[in-house]
Design a protein that fits this description.
alpha+beta, two-stranded antiparallel sheet
């Protein structure tokens, strides 16, 4: 007979008629310390977002992405309070609208945060979402560790802390809510790999519900999770064949029930995503170009106490993708932990998973300290696989975060009852590895102003139902969109053309692009903004402007921070006639022009 010790997964063989019965499985019970740990995580998350609380004039450093997610949260609240379709919106990109299922709409955050958004606005809702993502992920991993893997609450707390506040999670949290919202990952793993064989249907239903909810948080995380769980299961089966044979039928039944439940719930939303109005194919950027430098794994991220923005910036695609950056000591400590605990199948499986995902994050060829070695990376094998060819390679490194967090918890738990001479070196080693990675508050930058004409509702006298407010210049491509920002901060009170989203190039071409298809007037105004010169304007340009304004269903054009010598303002004057100054803005009422031209 084979049983497992309660503090390790190493098998012990007991034979003979007098063999002792296995020790009863320890039942996990909540303790007051659990609430203190969760409160600590929550306090740390609030501290990291301190640069924006009560500061509407500030945004996190990747300002465009925060504007996007503020708009998504405001749109989710509008869908709830107004009974609108949560999967598609015409508040932006008038007249075609935006396929929200095909974008990172984070409905799983936006819907429950509706009261916050409605009462306090999109910025507060975004900050609450960041706090919940960081603290919630840490708490969920702490609960899984304490319930299943370790006996020491202190060990579980350290593991949960790292899983929720590792440099990669903090880096993503300031810009990409869909990547930071990982609090369901340990829940899904706990349901899939639950060791007991009872309540299969209940666990399968819960698994299906959790997977469906994760789709509305972030599908990319779910893709990584499915791949990582498969690699982990395969590696564990090789390390403990008997255990794998025993658990495989139960896990398979759970997965079957979960797939059925999730399939029923997700059938229509996924149809909208891949075949509904505004769906697209591919990505509007070269995803394979976002890879990590091998040297980044031993470097401190810029948003840590030991971080260096210049050095880190050389080794990552951008400031939001510092997904490795584990510092010089943690990788060495991880190697030591693996060597010490190598006999445990769990450790071997975690090691295989972590190493594979670290290699995948390096892209098609491996770069070391900014030097492309030309050595092919294993990601090359996935580059043509559907779904996996759309993910950003650098984000594979995020799977290494829970691997390291679990290893840290296992190591600390292993020595919890050892003599002080054994415990002290391990505690010191963990402190030396983690203290340099202590996160610092997420950096902020000034926010573009929302004109009082927009914020105070002065536009309402100019925009009748069915017509739009057009920010000047109308943004093309992936540039920062005032349409998205003004719309979010005003609670989607008006409709606007353009915006920051991913959509098709045209109704006939589903290839992905940033924002709405360019119209001639958009390009003309963008050229004026970029060159600082007024382009030649003739009757042809004026006729085209009228046609474009009619396409946008425009009622009023609004430019913030306008000055008489501004080339964009002069270009609009030449196209539609002179505008006039209002509070914090310059406006052009184009209703008379369009009416005179039959619009």
């Amino acid at each position: 007979m084979v049983v497992g010790r309660p503090d390790t997964d190493q098998p012990v063989r007991l034979t003979g008629p007098d063999r002792p019965a296995p020790a009863p499985r320890r039942r996990w019970r909540p303790r007051p310390v659990d609430a203190l740990v969760a409160a600590g995580y929550l306090g740390l998350a609030v501290l990291l977002t301190a640069g924006q609380w009560g500061r509407p004039d500030r945004l996190f450093h990747q300002a465009g992405d925060q504007m996007l997610f503020e708009w998504m949260l405001a749109r989710a609240a509008r869908a709830v309070t107004g009974g609108e379709n949560p999967l598609h919106s015409t508040a932006l990109n008038v007249p075609d609208g935006v396929n929200l299922m095909a974008n990172t709409s984070v409905l799983g955050l936006g819907v429950p945060l509706t009261p916050v958004t409605a009462l306090f606005g999109s910025q507060v809702a975004f900050l609450v979402a960041v706090v919940l993502c960081l603290a919630g992920t840490a708490t969920a991993w702490y609960a899984l560790l304490a319930r299943r893997l370790v006996r020491s609450r202190a060990a579980a707390a350290v593991g949960g802390l790292f899983c929720g506040f590792a440099p990669g999670l903090v880096s993503q949290a300031g810009a990409h809510l869909h990547m930071a919202a990982q609090f369901l990952v340990p829940v899904i793993l706990g349901l899939v790999f639950r060791p007991a064989a009872d309540r299969v249907r209940r666990d399968g239903v819960l698994l299906g519900l959790a997977v469906a909810y994760q789709v509305f948080l972030g599908e990319e995380v779910l893709v990584f999770l499915a791949l990582a769980a498969g690699v982990f299961a395969g590696a564990y089966a090789l390390a403990d064949r008997a255990g794998a044979r025993r658990l495989a039928p139960v896990v398979a039944r759970r997965l079957g029930v979960g797939a059925l439940v999730a399939g029923v719930l997700l059938a229509y939303p996924l149809w909208v995503q891949f075949h509904g109005p505004g769906h697209y194919r591919g990505m509007p950027f070269y995803a394979r170009g976002y890879r990590l430098d091998l040297a980044s794994y031993a470097t401190a991220a810029r948003q840590t106490v030991a971080g260096d923005g210049h050095h880190a910036g050389l080794l990552a695609p951008n400031a939001t993708e510092e997904n490795s950056f584990f510092g010089p000591f943690l990788p060495l400590l991880a190697v030591l932990i693996v060597v010490r605990l190598w006999r445990r199948p769990l450790v071997r499986a975690l090691t295989a998973c972590g190493l594979l995902f670290a290699l995948l994050s390096l892209g098609t060829t491996i770069v070391v300290n900014r030097h492309d070695t030309g050595v092919p990376g294993p990601y090359r094998l996935l580059a043509g696989v559907p779904l996996l060819d759309l993910v950003v390679p650098a984000r594979f490194a995020l799977a290494c975060v829970p691997v390291l967090g679990v290893l840290l918890a296992l190591a600390l738990d292993r020595v919890r009852h050892r003599a002080a001479r054994t415990w002290a070196p391990w505690a010191g080693a963990v402190a030396a590895a983690l203290l340099p990675l202590t996160p610092t508050p997420i950096r902020t930058v000034p926010a573009m102003p929302v004109p009082a004409f927009v914020a105070d509702g002065g536009w309402r006298a100019y925009v009748p139902p069915g017509r739009t407010l057009v920010p000047v210049p109308p943004v093309t491509g992936s540039a920062v969109s005032p349409a998205s920002f003004w719309s979010a901060r005003s609670g989607l009170a008006f409709d606007a053309p353009g915006g920051y989203f991913i959509g098709p190039r045209s109704t006939a071409d589903p290839a992905a692009r940033w924002g709405a298809p360019d119209l001639p007037t958009s390009l003309l105004l963008r050229r004026a903004a970029e060159t600082g010169q007024v382009p030649p304007i003739g009757d042809a340009e004026r006729r085209q402007a009228v046609a474009d304004l009619r396409h946008w269903r425009a009622a009023v054009l609004v430019q913030a921070d306008s000055t008489p010598g501004d080339p964009v303002r002069a270009t609009v004057d030449a196209l539609v006639g002179p505008g006039r100054d209002v509070a914090d803005a310059h406006i052009w009422d184009v209703r008379p022009l369009l009416a005179a031209r039959g619009g």
